[in-house]
Amino acid sequence: MDTLHALSLLAAEPPGLLPARQQMALSLGWHIVLACFGVAFPSMIFVAHWLGVVRGDAGALVLARRWAKVSAVLFAIGAVSGTVLSFEMGLLWPGLMGPFGDVLGLPFALEGLSFFVEAIFLGLYLYGWDRMAPRLHLLMLVPMAAAGVVGTFCVVSVNAWMNNPTGFRMVDGEVTDVRPWRAMFNDGALLQFAHMWVAAFMVVGFVVAGVYAAGMLRGRIDRHHRLGFTVPFVFASVAAVVQPFVGHLLGLRLGESQPSKLAAFELATTTEQPAPLRLGGILVDGEVRGAIDVPRIGSFIARGSFDLPVQGLDTIPVQDQPPVNITHLAFQTMVGLGTLLALVAVAFWVLRWRGHHLTDHRWFLRLAVVAGPLAVLAMECGWVATEVGRQPWTVWRVLRTEDAASTSGGLWWSLGVTTTVYLLMTVGAVVVLRSMARRWRTGEEDLPVPYGPEPADAGAEPT
Asked: Fewer beta carbons within 10 angstroms: which end of the chain, N or C?
């Protein structure tokens, strides 16, 4: 796209488009990390609590209690950011929510119900330590985890619908014949949810394991830290190995459903058969520069065959092409980091099986600490790739983003307020979680439960 054409498109954009995009990117990018904890953390807490209740492991029960308190803090902050997002959908994108509100209402309603169910059972779990029978208390985590998964599916199904619109008909510019269940269970919903669900376990597993790896780097080589590292790292390892296969299945659909996104992923300026895999590189004045081509692998990744063609950008009208460089680099960063994390996980368990305990090596602990932020970055890049790659469409081939955005020029104030709120919540979360960790290191366990471990000071009166 030449400079004059880009400037003409920019001049035609409604005044609310750029701030709407910036605010939505900030809100979703921030909230998605908390959503991952809602999906994956209850399962990890369940394993730790199960070890405590069924196996009689007092240390695991301490771990479950601590993780539950962390989960409560993150849930409270996520409730705020999720509420902000619910208002943003109508405020920033009236062109989407106005015509398609009936189509998208069902998954949003079910997500709200899931949120309340998750909140109820989280409360029961937090306050049930000294009031419930051990196994009944453990079971409170099951509906809590299920609600997190259902809520996430509902939200992801909306995004999948934007990529695969169905469940309605357009008649004279009006949305008719709405079938909300068909829209919710659109052709891309299950695979896109699976991709996000597995990503959640990668993110939470590596982040939590990294926290305990950092503790071990500071000399806290005890069973508590080893168990706190191992449980989430197991989840993260399985997710990291499974994720490339799920992503590959999801990507195979792009050749037919969104060829422009696939062309941007592969940096394919022209249709090639077979297509190479281009590592790195950017598009400058219509030419690929700085890329390393690996023959035939592009066709295999994109089409599942070493010989099938990958459609090029030259077959896509300029006004329908996504921002190619952002899409391509985000996609390759996601794939590269995901592959690296999978290799780290496989290497860890292979070497452990052969008798090498990598948690005794500082170089590996440092790698484990870094793996958490890398997993978050990989997930964020994945969302950038899929969302930017769909542009210029909010609803693929139905509603252009410039037509969905608000026309208000005052959205810059909304962006400023939202940025301030998220900054304050981030600082608050860090301060609270660090304070909790500091108290725990001094022995303030506060576990007065009939089936739990003895307090740190056995002679002291319970508080």
From this structure: C
- Dihedral, CA of residue 160, residue 163, residue 167 and residue 172, to nearest 10: 150
Summarised one tens digit per residue, pLDDT across range 346-377 is 999 998 888 877 777 888 899 999 999 999 99
Angle at 370 between CA 77 and CA 342, to 5 degrees: 100
Using left for φ > 0, alpha for ψ between -120 and 50, and beta otherwise, residue 308 falls in beta
Query: Facing residues of 399 across strands?
Result: 395
Query: Do the Cβ atoms of 125 and 144 come closer than 8 Å?
Result: yes
* Count of Cβ atoms closer than 10 Å to residue 448 Cβ: 11
Query: b/e map of 324-359 (b: 16 or more CB within 10 Å)?
Result: bebbbbbbbbbbebbeebbebbeebeeeeeeeeebb
- For residues 208 and 119, what is the distance between their CA atoms, to the nearest angstrom? 22
CA distance 44 to 67: 9
Cα–chain center distance at 79: 16
Rg (CA), the chain: 24
**pLDDT digits over 99-127, tens only?**
999 999 999 999 989 999 999 999 899 88
Contact 267, 281 (CB under 8 A): yes
SS3 content of the chain, % helix, strand, coil (to 5): 70, 5, 25
